[in-house]
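Render this sequence as a predicted structure.
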Amino acid sequence: MRSRLPPLNSLRLFEAAARLLSFKNAAEELLLTPSAVSHGIQSLEEWLGVPLFLRTTKGLVLSEAGQTYIPTVRQALHLLASGSAQVINRHGSGQLSISAAPTFAARWLLPRLHKFRELHPDIQIVIDTSQERAELSEDGVDLAIRMGRGNWQGVVADKLVAEVLVPVCAPSIRERVYDLADIEQAPLIYVTSTSEDWEMWASATGRAMPDQAKGLRFDTIHMAFQAACQGLGVAIGRKPLVDQELASGNLVEIWDLVPSQTAYWLVGAESRADDPRIVAFRSWILQESATSAG
């Protein structure tokens, strides 16, 4: 006799909502709407015949049945993920083309890519860093790493790393510009392709934008960081892209840090989400992003 299984997709929704104790936060993590999460959990509750959550004045809490059920669900999902990874490791092979911005590819992805190669030596990675935005599938691109807010339609989008804006400069000029009162005298460094960075920072910190006519301008983030390292002024560092210079001590943080409204996302076509190569890379890069954020 075949075992009766609950609606499997609802188990993933239940695990996220139980961990975060929020349908809204679970929806954001899973790139769904809160309504979709709520309906999925309702279907699971109807199948089980018991409520899994209780709404209290302090917010969402697990019911007694939910507390009993969640360890089993987590163990089952872990076993599925582990078993899937073993199959992928044995059978995932071929070429995987990834489109990414040059700076992110060089500064974040490349230093970590050897770990993926060790886990999946049969998957040949091709990185496309051309400035033109490649289209999934149409341009032979399997996955893309995009900067944005994740509100793209018709794709599977996983958040990798959030951006943080922080003014940075060389240690040699830190004392001269450390006081925010010196911002008018400090030579500011701009990147022409992200010229709004200083405006975003000034707006978020409630400060007037300094006179841009006094600043230095470069066409790449890399050149701006190099100029800052040479003591030519203060640049807006985008974490995690500036982490190398901060770790080495070539640049130091000054003034206020401002969380950006954008992040880096791994984006793929919904129709190919089950491709073993894509599953393998997505699993690996999400683990790497979680490690780097922690």
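Summary. The radius of gyration is 23 Å. The longest strand covers residues 155-169.
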